[in-house]
Amino acid sequence: MPDETSDSEEATVNVAVISGMGVCLPRRIVSNDEIAPPLDVSDEWIRTRTGIARRHRIEAGTSTSDLAAAAGRAALESAGVGTADMVLLATSTPDRKCPSTAPEVAWRLGLGEAPALDVNAACSGFIYALALASSHIRSGAHASVLVIGADCYSTIVDPADRSTAVLFGDGAGAMVVRAGEEGEPGSLLATTLGSDGSGGDFAAVAAGGSRLPHGARYEAAGAHHLALNGRQIYLQAIRRMSAATKSVVAAAGWAVDDLEALVAHQANQRILDAVGKRLGLSPGRLVGNIEDVGNTAAASVPLAMADAAERKCVPVGGRTALTAFGAGLTWGAVAATWPAATPVTSPAETRA
């Protein structure tokens, strides 16, 4: 029989659309003046090298799932929905080594038996999870996905190591993405991901996995703390985020000059400035909040985006690129139009 389906009736490909944004930052704020003296540095020393003035840190008894559940609930509220078909939790500081943290978060949010999994791509985790969510929605497998980035790097950073202690803060950011149409604000139009395992030692916690099981001898050597090769991370982050941004912008059919906002992983202000300069973007188009929250790892991109949305510094529908670089090495980028969602902020939900 001949195909009687008209062009107007042909099935269209779903597009993932950001419809809600949620934020959770621990109540405790740690200023440079608090952490500088034990490290034999100053507020000026930290600001000059990192652009950070303060960061949030969890209190004893609070964990990654507490922040993730709160941010996820806030994102659902922002989207005006009570559920999602799937949960992707980007984190490299899970509550436990095994099992993953996402199923507990989904349970705490009352999402029934929705599939839930952790995505561990370090600071690139949220971009990886957002790309996965887009793929699931475009394929028709799910109509909505709750994507959360949550990390508590204060639990793996050596407080006596000035190369890491000044950088990291704790927090969680979340987005609801749903099936929609390409013309809607918040549409995810293109994604790109990459990795290079040859640089896996540039930023790593050596002990605790199967290669070096956690034990007293590794505790003494400090192998359970995050160690950074600062020079390599600096060079790789600039190179990878710049290239990923160019790639995803081209895939969306734009030019870099068309961008109205670049939301890059808030690793270090000098890295962010260098990426902007390499791309030829004016400082006004670089979205960031590193001064107030520090490097929040997988939570970095959604927290920066929510902060900008709250301040209304990017027009709804504006051409936007999100990019991140992390340990692994991993990197990625997403091209999107700026969402219309209003962020909702929630305190951590400590489990009884």
Number of helices: 11
CATH architecture: 3-Layer(aba) Sandwich
What is the residue-averaged pLDDT?
A: 93
Q: Which of globular, elongated, flat, extended, rod-shaped describes the shape?
A: globular
Task: Say what oligomer this is.
Answer: single chain
CATH topology: Peroxisomal Thiolase, Chain A, domain 1
Q: Which sheet architecture does the biggest sheet show?
A: 6 strands, mixed
Uncertain stretches: 1-11
Cα end-to-end separation: 63 Å
The ordered string of helix (H) and strand (E) elements is EEHHEHEHEHEHEEEHEHEHEHHEEE
- Fourth CATH level, the homologous superfamily: Thiolase/Chalcone synthase
Beta-strand fraction estimate: 15-25%
Radius of gyration using CA atoms only: 20 Å
User: Order of strands across the biggest sheet?
Assistant: 5-4-6-7-1-15
Descriptive report:
It is a single chain. This protein is α/β, with parallel strands linked by helices and 352 residues long. The chain has one domain (13-341): Peroxisomal Thiolase, Chain A, domain 1 (3-Layer(aba) Sandwich). Helices cover 32% and strands 24% of the residues. The chain has helices at 32-39, 43-50, 64-79, 102-108, 125-139, 162-165, 216-221, 230-251, 269-279, 290-293, 300-311; strands spanning 15-24, 28-31, 54-57, 87-90, 116-119, 144-152, 170-180, 188-195, 203-205, 226-228, 261-264, 286-287, 319-326, 330-337, 344-345. The strands form 4 sheets. Strands 5-4-6-7-1-15 form a 6-stranded mixed beta sheet, sandwiched between helices. β4 (87-90), α4 and β5 (116-119) form a beta-alpha-beta unit. α8 packs parallel to α9 (269-279). The protein starts with 14 loop residues before the first strand and ends in a 7-residue tail after the last strand.
